[in-house]
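During the no-cost extension, the postdoctoral fellow (Dr. R.K.) reprocessed legacy sequence entries with the updated structure-token encoder. One reprocessed record is reproduced below for audit purposes.
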Amino acid sequence: MELTPTRFVVPALIGICWFVLAAVVFVVPAHWPVLGVWLVLLLAAAAAGSAFPNLDFFGRSLSRRPSAAGRVALTFDDGPDPEYTLQVADALEAGGGRGTFFVVGQRVLQHPEIVAALVARGHQVGLHGHTHVWHLMLREPSLIADLLAADAAVHGATGRRARWYRPPIGLIAPPMMNVLRQWRLHFAGWSVRPLDGRVDDPSIVRQRVASAVSAGDVVLLHDASPLVGPPRRPPALDALPGILDDLRDKGLAPVTLSELFDEPAWFEEDDVFEEERRSFRRGRLQLGVWATVTALCLSIALFASAGRARAAEPELPPELVAAATSLAANDTVRASFTQTKSSVLFVEDMVRTGTLEMRRSDGRLVWNYADGVAFLMADGRFYPAGKTAEEAGAEGALGFSMPGSGDFTGVMQALFTLDPKAVATHFSAKALGDGRFELVPRQAQARGLFAKVILQVRADPVTVESTTMHEATGDTTVIVFTDTQTGIEIPAERFQTPAERSAGGK
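Re-encoded structure tokens follow.
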């Protein structure tokens, strides 16, 4: 079977969707809205595959054969019509051609003699469903029942079983393709569609066909009055003589689909098994699409529900809000600190001292340790502070990020400046009394770093006195701040990354 690149679009999207779903669930839950993007992409691909079956998203369609030099296939849907179908056949034969008629089972039962005449005169007959209901493509049992009725009608009229099928309205879905594979039916697509069911002017139909047709094309036309609505003379009937003249001028001969693709028009009578046709198995692509859509929808619903639940949690304690509001009036902070880290990996606690400087407007921090090491935290990454890109080296100029935390800047703003929005975004809080507050992570970024954080806030003047961080690793880091100054002038170059410092930016 010929494979086309489009056959891999939907499977590739399914695979990417599951990768993104796993990444969101296990790594970055805060990015859950991206699941909606992939759900939309998958559904858009499925919709395109349904509306444009010639893309072969869900399976092979016989819609064009470029190697068929000098031949085209004219196909006609929705018959047989007691007034128009045989007129169409007459026009085809007058032009030296044969066509393929996709017939509706209910109409075949009303006019079996027309279908028998088409076959006797050398035309091909294919199935177009029994009731001409497009949504049967979504459920195998309904589609099978419809096909069984249509096949029985054609068999009763011709004594033969058609091997070609074109769906009503031209829409498909994985369940339909599963049934067609099970029945071993050829899916009849098209490459030229003048939309003659929507226009009444035969000259427009002729012009659309003439401008698009070439060797190997399959042209989709109609030979019958609509099944629903007021009676209407099919414009293809009056356009057909001109279409045949145009084909002749291009050196093209109209043949049946069977002749164009060198595929049988009929099954051998002993090659059809009723029991096999009545059963069905859902295909892997169909199961993959449904499972992926279901998983994405459920995940989005669960994340959204969790977000609403978090939004409904109690607000920050009034004392913490008051302290945060007071600190928010100052754009800069400078404080001395003593940092003590306790860990099962160390025999003794690690103690370091230094100075912290912070700019609230962009959440940048500079840690100046007494041993001479200085780090700048900017936009969630760490850089060597006070160095140009050349002095920092390639790795230092790029900076490095903290594992397990995407919005590290926001977390640090919450802890060291009590930015109200940052605290509410990353933590739930409760007052412990005497200016002490317990912060518990609400989102993955903070949970990747901390189990909980205890803040000690000084009342007059309002400053963060100490931060006790119970880390996700089991370590505990206590930072005690002294000599805190707020609202002071700090040179902007102190907060520049190595790249900004080299470029002279601020």
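The chain has three domains: 5-51+289-308, 58-278, 318-503. The two ends are 62 Å apart (CA to CA). The remaining legacy entries will be reprocessed before the final report is submitted.
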